[in-house]
Structure formats: structure tokens, C-alpha cells
Design brief:
There is one protein chain. This protein is mainly beta. The chain has one domain. The chain is built from one helix and eleven strands; from the N terminus they run E-E-E-E-E-E-H-E-E-E-E-E. The protein has a four-stranded antiparallel β-sheet, with no helix packed on it. Strands 8-9-10-11 form a four-stranded antiparallel β-sheet, with no helix packed on it. A hairpin with a 3-residue loop joins strand 5 and strand 6. The longest helix is centred in the middle third of the chain and has 6 residues.
Length: about 160
């Protein structure tokens, strides 16, 4: 019976599929060979902001391999990188709270999660996205930040004069 985490889902023949959040895997690279089970790797995933059209966030994160990693029992590190970009016209579909969770993914079987939260910097007309682990490491969670300026989409660029 094999259990493993993929795209935020616990998959197993003995358990129900438990959704955490949806992200599309873009790709991965192996970082360390493992004799038994899958290799350690860095995974790149993308998800669209559910309340803001035109914004996609990309996350890179480590994923442990080996026997424990293959069974979904390994605790992945808290390291993550985040890059959010405007990919179309930005439209805020519904109001949101500052610091509202946009994406969550389990990083261990029980207690650790990676979370992405969103803020709106009204003074600068910018969306701010923060990724962090909810497990404290050396007194504070590891984190990364990305911003998306709310700009018009598809307008012609200004012509320079010769």
C-alpha cells in the first residue's frame, strides 16, 4: 500500500483523497540520488489567485525522496521561493481580508504547512504575496515575498520619437 503527497493531495489506496489546495506542477529537477524510493528534488508549481483574475504565482520547493518521501511520511524543509506575475487583465473578483490565505500545501504528515497569503498595498496599487512555513525554525518561520503591481493590460507601448 503506497501513500504519497502530490500537488497537495494525500493519495493512497487505503485513504480518501484529501485536498489541500490546487497547484499545477510545472516541472522538477532531481537534487540528490536515492538508492531506494524517489530522488530528492525541487518542484515548481503554479496556482492562480482564486479572488484576483490575471495573477499567477509560481512556487519552488524542496521535496524529500527516499522511502519516507515515496510513502508521504517525510517532513519536507521549510524552504520555498515565490514569484507572482500579472498574466492578464487584473480584476479583483471579490473583497478579501488582508493576510487572507491564497494557497496551502502540507509539508509533513501532521503539523507543518506552507502557506501563501495576500495583502493589498493601496498606496502603491500593488498586490503583495507572502509564502511561509507555519512551523517555527530558529525562532521564526522561513518566508519569501513577491509583489504584483496592478497595471493596465494590453495597452500599446508609447512610441519614441527619433
Amino acid at each position: 500500500m503506497k501513500n504519497f503527497w502530490r500537488n497537495g493531495l494525500l493519495l493512497s489506496s487505503a485513504f480518501m483523497v484529501l485536498p489541500v489546495s490546487h497547484a499545477d506542477e510545472i516541472g522538477s529537477v532531481d537534487t540528490a540520488f536515492q538508492w531506494l524510493g524517489p530522488n530528492h528534488k525541487i518542484v515548481i508549481e503554479a496556482f492562480d489567485d482564486p479572488k484576483v483574475d490575471g495573477v499567477t504565482c509560481y512556487i519552488s520547493r524542496s521535496q524529500k525522496g527516499g522511502i519516507k518521501g515515496g510513502l508521504g511520511l517525510a517532513e519536507d524543509t521549510s524552504d520555498a521561493s515565490l514569484a507572482c506575475r500579472q498574466v492578464g487583465p487584473i480584476a479583483i473578483k471579490e473583497q478579501f481580508k488582508e493576510g487572507e490565505e491564497v494557497f496551502t500545501e502540507r509539508r509533513s504528515l501532521l503539523f507543518k504547512k506552507m502557506r501563501v497569503v495576500r495583502f493589498l498595498d493601496k498606496a502603491r496599487n500593488t498586490l503583495v504575496y507572502l509564502v511561509y512555513s507555519d512551523k517555527l525554525v530558529d525562532g521564526s518561520p522561513k518566508n519569501a515575498l513577491s509583489t504584483v503591481a496592478i497595471m493596465p493590460w494590453g495597452t500599446p507601448s508609447p512610441q519614441s520619437t527619433p
